[in-house]
């Protein structure tokens, strides 16, 4: 029998935006492994440590304190399902509730969303790219300047695809779509493959990849990445540290992972983690 529930007590997770906040990875691990996860982080504002929760492939109940919030503990209670045998496809419609500093997300239906008739249509045309550092790694980015688009960005031979549509035409932030395939060498050494949509810290492209905690823009998007590993960790972190549940999440036998979402966003990444990996981001760790 496969283990479907896991506990991670007393973590000492140092949060790092835009790809590695604690609740962001906790949810990503639950989604990717298709398990129920209980994760307990310590609270230390000086070391940027906070964020705990109870996660299933269909829901998330969590608490993420911000600097200056009261330091007393928080009790989280959630009803979790008895998970059936593992399935290749996870699909869900999202429902978000927030209150008292806690957040709960639940999901449970298939949206079947795709902008085009087929997500296997010929690849989109090339767009101007630029290079920027994100979390000490060199990403290839494309700016999301149009009201809608179908974009492909590659870092070497590794490519990601994004179909998006802004829901408000007067969005004020700058967003970028990035790809990375390489070896991370800061605070550890591991291989990564990452597809990420991020809100830039400012209105200049040089700020893309820097930390941004708040955003007002809202979009529909569908993101695809074809990874060399089965260890892919999808996450969606929105403004003021709120999580979103994907409307659909599909894993293909050829390694392609597709996520569909309608949301306000700060950053999200489909991480793929290498064979020995314990980290997340669409990362191949």
From TrEMBL:
Please, which domain of life does this record's source organism belong to?
Eukaryota
Q: Which UniProt keywords apply?
A: Hydrolase
MF terms in GO: hydrolase activity
| Vanin C-terminal domain mapped to chain residues | 133-250
**What protein name applies here?**
Vanin C-terminal domain-containing protein
Record the organism: Oreochromis niloticus
* Lineage, opening ranks: Eukaryota, Metazoa, Chordata, Craniata, Vertebrata
